[in-house]
Amino acid sequence: MTVRMPRDQRLVLAIAVLASFVSFLDGTVVTVALPAILDELGGGLATQQWVVDAYLVTLGALILVAGSISDVYGRLLVIRIGLVGFGLTSIAIAAAPTPEFLIIARALQGVAGALLVPSSLALITSNFRDEAQARAIGIWTALTTAAMVAGPVVGGLFVDFGSWRYAFLINVLPIAVTLWLTVSLARIGHRDVRREGARIDWLGAVLCTVGLGGTVFALIEEPSFGWSSPAIWVPLTVGLAAFAGFLVRQRFAAQPMMPLSLFRVRNFWSGNITTLFVYGALSLNGFVLGVYLQQGAGLPATLAGLATLPSTILMIVLSSRVGVWSGRLGPRLFMTVGPLTMAAGALLLLTVSEDFSYWWQVLPSVLVFGFGLTLTVTPLTSAILGAIEPARSGIASAVNNAVSRVAGLLVIAMLSAIVGGQLDLDGFHRAAVVTAALMAAGGVVSWIWIRKPEAEPGSAAAIEAESGVDPETGTGPLR
To answer: Does position 460 have pLDDT exceeding 60, yes or no?
Structure first.
């Protein structure tokens, strides 16, 4: 029998879900809105890249330090600051008069977004224990996944029947509700959690931000200036040097943002390499498909948003079952077959032609791609976090989240080189091939290095491995 949550835990869970939902929703809305932004504000492909990457630079750089900030100042306070910042920057984006203003607002929104997701999960882990914690994280995952479904569709509806600007204002209402819930939680006597002795690695955060920012600027603007221009090689050199400094800083800092000792664990470092390939490919595929379906195939934004819905539905329906299978068989098989299946799905996009048909050219790819994604995501997360002791699971999750964001950041920065300077049909096909290559690389890495974690003595998995008997019923082999 499921025990009813106390009121304060229900409020905590609602706050955590809504705060993360805001960030996830914005991430899926923006791709559908890019063609409309280009039509109104101009700027070309580079502007579209910067609208995505300005957010990812600050988000990817600061998501690691955000956990330390919430430890020092308290989870609820950091969430409130993040919500207010996200709301104000959403309004600024909706009112943007120029591409430059929009890009700056998106970068500031990434700062606010970095405060939301890690603090939301920390709020759950600090207020729930044991089975209640697992249940709360499951609810959080299920409800925030809904943003993947809602974002492109809702964004497309606003673009088609109103303005792309309204798509960024849909955050305002959930932000207001979440802030009201934090006040309600404080009124019933809930105390915010702070960790004694926690410190913030501000120098590490600056080095990481400069490192990513300089590198991404060079990659995006290189087609305009060329590698020989000081406007390219200077920020690239500074960026690479700053990122090298960031890694050195993490080696010697008393409380590093990214403890390098984590990378001594085989499944952790190999899982994060797989993450780099897989999430880079996911970002490339999502960006190119969302933009090309509108600019190249001529679909309205709503239909472009609905195009990948079957993939998301497959994830929602099958992810929990895949998690069970992965727990029994180990993550290696799924992390190999899943990315290879997605590679095949990406190659199916090569059937897209000037005589466009969603049903025969895109839908088969979406279905195959979605099935591969379903096979991959849960085992990948389990392999990475399961390789690290529970006491460090929070920072392990933050590092993996940052790796996935940086992967998308770098691939979008290289988009012009990938598609040949223009996202026409040939560029779309080139992007499909690169997506397939990245996915295949992720599958190969998983097959070579990922291993099934050893079951702890006395655990249900150990009992099953030793006897083949269902540890819950004791009646025979598991099916």
So the answer is: no
Specify whether the CB–CB gap between 163 and 44 falls below 8 A. no
CA separation for the pair 207, 252 (Å, rounded): 14
Exposed/middle/buried for 339, CB within 10 Å: 0-12, 13-18, 19+? buried
Give the residue carrying structure tokens 């997701």.
117
Per-residue exposure over 71-108, b if at least 16 CB sit within 10 Å of its own CB, e if not: bbbbbbbbbbbbbebbbbbbebbbebeebeebbbbbbb
> What distance in Å separates the CA atoms of residue 53 and residue 408, rounded to the nearest whole number?
8
Task: Give the separation between CA 360 and CA 13, rounded to whole angstroms.
Answer: 42
CB proximity list for 136: less than 8 A, separation 6 or greater = 9, 13, 16, 124, 128
Diameter of the chain measured on Cα atoms: 72
How many Cβ atoms are within 10 Å of 241's Cβ, its own excluded?
14
The per-residue pLDDT for range 145-186, each reduced to its tens digit, is 667 667 788 888 889 998 999 988 888 888 999 999 988 887
Cα-based distances in Å from 39 to 43, 117, 302: 9, 32, 17
- On the CB side of 58, how many CA atoms lie within 13 Å of its CA? 20
Nearest-5° Cα angle at 126, 122 to 131 = 105
CB atoms within 10 A of CB 248: 13
The amino acid at 203? L
Instruction: Give me the half-sphere count of Cα atoms (radius 13 Å) on the Cβ side of residue 460.
Output: 9
How far is the C-alpha of 153 from the C-alpha of 156, rounded, in Å? 5
Quick: pLDDT tens for 332-376.
Answer: 999 999 999 999 999 999 999 999 999 999 999 999 999 999 899
CA distance 151 to 33: 11
Whole-number Cα distances in Å, 364 to 77, 442, 455: 46, 22, 38
Q: Using DSSP, state whether 297 is helix, strand or coil.
A: coil
CB atoms within 10 A of CB 319: 17
Euclidean distance between CA atoms 472 and 454, whole angstroms:
20
Q: In this predicted model, what pLDDT tens digit does every residue of 46-91 receive, in sequence order? A: 889 999 999 988 888 788 787 778 777 877 888 899 999 999 999 9
CA proximity to 358, closest of 309, 415, 426: 309
pLDDT tens for residues 411-447? 999 998 999 888 999 999 999 999 999 999 999 999 9
Handedness of CA 39, 41, 42, 44 (dihedral sign): negative
